[in-house]
Specification:
The protein has about 400 residues and is α/β, with parallel strands linked by helices. The chain contains 16 helices and 15 strands. The protein is globular.
Length: about 400
Amino acid sequence: MRIDSFPPYFDHIDGFEDFLVRTRLVNGALINGINLNDCSNEVSLSAIKNSILINCEFPGSMLKRLIENGCSILSSAPDIPFEIAKETLYTPQALFEGFHNDKSRRYSSTLDAEIYHYWYSNDGVNSLNNFISLQGRLHDYFISRALCGEIAKFGKLKVVAIMGGHELSRDESTYLEIVLLAGELARKGFLVISGGGPGAMEAAHLGVALAHENETKILDVVNYLKVTKFAHEPSWFDRAYDIAQDIRQEKSHFNSIGIPTWRYGHAPTPFATKIAKFFFNDTRESALIEKSLAGTIFFKGSAGTLQEILQKTSNNHYLASNYISPMVFYGNSYWNHEKPILPLLRSISSNTKYQKMMCITDTVADTVKFLTNSPPIEENYNGFNFCLSQTM
C-alpha cells in the first residue's frame, strides 16, 4: 500500500480496510488485485469513488454503484504474461530468470522474450488490437509511476542520460570512453540512465556497474566482452550476462536505470540495476528526455539519437520540465560535420538561456566538469497561454 503518493495505491486488503475505516472515503485511488468480498462488515464499499479497480473481485451487486461513483473497472487478459499494474520497476534477475535456469541458455526462455512474443503475436506492436494496446498503455503508466518513485529516492536533479547508437561496437574506442565516463559520473553522485539496450547504452550501464573497480579491471572486462562485438553475434548476450552476474555478487554500490522498449525486440542490458521497460517507444523517449534534468550526453548515433537531440532541445526551448537542462555533444567533428546538427541547434537556440547550457567536447574530463559545474536552471514557461487568458 502507498497512501503517501497521489493517487493512493492499495494492493492488500488489510491496508485498504484500515484506510477506509479511518477516513470513510477512498477517492481517486488505484486499487490493484484485492478481493473486496473479504472486507469486514464495518467497511462500506459504496465509499469508493472516482477510483480505478484493476483485477479486483467484489459483490456483483456493487458493480452499478461503483460505476455511478465514477469508478473504472479493469482486468487483465487471462493469459497475459505481464502485470498491467506493476508497482515496481523490473530487475535484470526477473527479466532474465529463464535464461539462468535454462541449461541451453536460450533467450527465448526469459520473461523478457515471453512478453515480447505475446505483444508481437497479438498485434500490440502496431496497436491493431485495441484490448492489448490498452493493456500495454496501462502497464506503461504504472512503469512511469514506478520510475518516478525510483528517481525521487535519488533526487530528480541528479539524473544524467547517456544517449547513443545501439550499433556501437564493443571494440570501438567510444565504447570504452562511455564506460569510463559513466563510472566517473556515478562516483560524482549522478544517477545514470539510458535507453537500456545494446551499444552505447550497454556501455553506460557497464561503466556504472564497474565504477568501484580500477582501470585494469575495467579493461579486462571490456576485452572479454568485445570478443562478440554486436548484438546479432552468437554469445553476445551470454558474455554480458555472465559479467553482470559476477558484478552482482560483488555488490557494487552504484546504481543505474535502463529505460528500454519492447518495440524493437532488443534485449535490455543486464548491467542496469533496475529496468523501466515500456511497450510504447513514445512514452519511453519522453521518460528519458524529461527525467534527465542534470544533463543529457549525446554520443554518435543514427536517427533515434538525432530525434532525442531535437526532443531535448524542444524540452529546453519551451521549458516543458520547468528546467533548462545541460546538453553535451561528445565528438566535435562528428556533430559538426559527419552528422552536422550543431549548426541547426546554434540557430534555434540563438539568444536563449539554454544556448549556454550546451557543451561540445571530445574528452571524459571536460564532460564531467561541465555537468558538475552546470546544474539545471529552474524556470517556468512565460509564453502566451490562450486557455488561461480566457479564464481570467
